[in-house]
Design a protein that fits this description.
heterodimer, A: about 110 residues, mainly beta, six-stranded mixed beta sheet, four-stranded antiparallel beta sheet, globular, B: about 110 residues, seven-stranded mixed beta sheet
């Protein structure tokens, strides 16, 4: 079945450092790909998404490119801030499936030190 | 516009009891999804309701059940609670069937089973 694998955390960086959180997926069809963020004590928020190969999703300085050849959707940010400390989830959904569910990775906790 | 709301925020039960969790979707959304976020296990899909009908369920035992009301709000019931049911339960809503319809998440209900 479809699955998402993302790098385990926690990831600890200093403010203004470059961030990469790796995410790879397995899917039988052509999924849509997402990054969600969960700030402490809150629910999930959609950070960015991409629906087809070579699409780049971006939001709040974060970017991720849908790479079909490597089945990857790595999250990047050029200069992180303390306020970026959160748990980040890579996820996919199959628009051709009647399941209508999102499959999540296990999450990567990010700590940004001032 | 109000987001997805969930109640209660926290719920403490003992083993064998029943728990009822509630979710109100964004106005105009007809689909409601339930996810379980257990420590170390990421987010697991539980149930999907659309237009009052259960459309899909994840790999959970039958003691996890729910319903969707005519106003599209939803209830998740967990019977015969077990210790491992302790988790954050997240509800999401969307405009309807189809993964291109973004799912918006509520803040969650934290269930603790003693």
């Amino acid at each position: 079945g479809d699955s998402v694998t993302q790098m385990e955390g926690p990831v600890t960086l200093s403010e203004e450092a470059f961030l990469t959180i790796n995410c790879t997926y397995t899917a039988t069809g052509y999924p849509s790909l997402f990054w969600y963020v969960q700030y402490p004590g809150e629910g999930l928020q959609l950070l960015l998404k991409a629906t087809k190969a070579d699409d780049k999703g971006s939001n709040k300085g974060f970017e991720a490119t849908y790479r079909k050849e490597t089945t990857s959707f790595h999250l990047e940010k050029g200069s992180v801030q303390v306020s970026d400390s959160a748990v980040y989830f890579c996820a996919l959904s199959d628009p051709w499936s009647r399941d209508d569910k999102i499959i999540f990775g296990k999450g990567t906790r990010l700590h940004i030190l001032p | 516009e109000a987001g997805v709301t969930q109640s209660p925020t926290h719920l403490i039960k003992t083993r064998g009891q029943q728990a009822t969790l509630r979710c109100s979707p964004i106005s105009g959304h007809t689909s409601v999804y339930w996810y379980q976020q257990a420590l170390g296990l990421g987010l697991q899909f539980l149930l999907w309701y659309d237009e009052g009908e259960e459309r899909n369920r994840g790999n959970f035992p039958p003691r996890f059940s729910g319903r969707q009301f005519p106003n599209y709000s939803s209830e998740l019931n967990v019977n015969a609670l077990e210790l491992e049911d302790s988790a954050l339960y997240l509800c999401a809503s969307s405009l309807g069937q189809g993964s291109y319809n973004e799912q918006f998440f509520g803040p969650g209900t934290r269930l603790t089973v003693l």
